[in-house]
C-alpha cells in the first residue's frame, strides 16, 4: 500500500458525518446524519493504524475484517471494500447505523487509546454498503442447487433473516413465518427511523424474497399452526422469535392509564411512518404530542422512546435511570443525541409510584450506588433523602424484555426452556430438546444486540446445514 494512504491518524483528525441541527432533526424521523462523501470516507478510513492485532475485529461479534476494508476504502477500492465487509455480515449497512460502536469496534480501537479518536468504523461501513446499493454492486441472492429439503424459520428478525439467507444459498427451500405484517422484527417495528430508515430494511427483505425465500407474514405460531404441525411441514425448524415480553415495574399505580410498554409505543410510531392506521395512536393513547413524558430505563430502547417522544411534540421528556450516567447500559452517543434534542436525564432515580386513574404524577425515589452486585456493578439503593414528584401524562416502561412462554403459546410442552423462559439449546449443535428444531438469537441469549443476532443466525445456519446433510444421507441409504 502507498505509505501516505494509511496511518494518517496523527495528521487527520477524527470526523464523523455531519449531523443535522437538533432543532431540525427533532421535527422528523429521518436519520440524523448525512453519509460521507467519497473523499471524506477515504480520508477517515486512512486513519487506521493497521495494527498487528486488530482489537476492532476481536471485539466485533461478527469478526468483520475491519482493517482490511478500511485499507481498501482508503485506496479508493470501494467495491472490494464492500465485498469484504459483506463477506462476514448479511446486513453491514444496518450494523453501521445501529451497532453501539462506542462499546464494540470503535471503543476498542488502538487509536482511541492514544487520544487521537477512534477510526469512524461504523460510518465507513455504512458508507461503503450504501454506495454498493447505489452502484448496483449488491448481488442478488442466488440459491444453491436444490437439495429437496425445506426449512421453516419462525421469526423474521435479524437472526431469522440471516439464517434464511445462508440456508437458501445452500439450496434449501426456506419458509419464514412471522406474526407481523412486515418482515424485519425489531429492525422494522422496534427501532425508530431516525436511527434506521425503513427503506434500508425493506430493501434487504425484498432481496431475500427475490431469492426465493417464502415469507408467511401475519402468521402466529400457536394460532395458525402448532409447532408440531410446522415440524411436519419441514425437514428442520429454526426458532428465532426474539424476546418481546416487557419487564414489569412492580410499583403502585402500574396499571394506570397512560403507563405503557416501550415496544407498544415504538411499534405504533413506526407503523405511522408506514402510513398504517393505528387506532391507539390516533386516539392519543400512544401519541406523546403535548404531554409530559417520563421514560423509565437506561438502555437503548429507553433512548429510542425518549427521542421518539421529542419528535412527536411532547411538552417535556424526562428519562429516569436508577444508576448514574457512567453506569447506564445504553450507548453514550444516544444519550448525547437525546440531550442535544432536549431530553432531561434524571440520574439516580427510580419509580416509587404512579398517581392518578390516568397517570398525572410520577413519584420517584432518589437513589445512591452501594456495594457491587453479582455483575460487578455497584447496586442502586434508595437514598433516605425522600422521593420527589414530577408531572407525567405518559409513562413509558423501557426496562428490557423477557421471553414469552413459548411451550404454552405453541402447545409444545416438550420444548425445553431455561428458568428465564429462553429456549435451551445444545451449545455445539444449537439444537433444542426437539430433534430437528434449532434456536438462535435473543430467544436463546436473552435481549441483546442486533449484531449478535446476526452472528447467531450465521452460526445456526451452519449447524442446520450439517444436520440436514446427515438427514439426507440417511434417507438415501434407506432408499437404496
Automatic annotation (TrEMBL):
Transmembrane segments: none
Top-rank taxon, per record: Bacteria
Enzyme class: oxidoreductase
InterPro entries assigned: DPD_II (IPR028261), FAD/NAD-bd_sf (IPR036188), FAD/NAD-binding_dom (IPR023753), GltD-like (IPR006006), Helical_ferredxn (IPR009051)
Domain FAD/NAD(P)-binding: 151-457
Keywords: 4Fe-4S, Iron, Iron-sulfur, Metal-binding, Oxidoreductase
Molecular function GO labels: 4 iron, 4 sulfur cluster binding; glutamate synthase (NADPH) activity; metal ion binding
EC number assigned by the record: 1.4.1.13
Domain Dihydroprymidine dehydrogenase: 25-136
Entry protein name: Glutamate synthase small chain
Source organism per UniProt: Sphingomonas jeddahensis
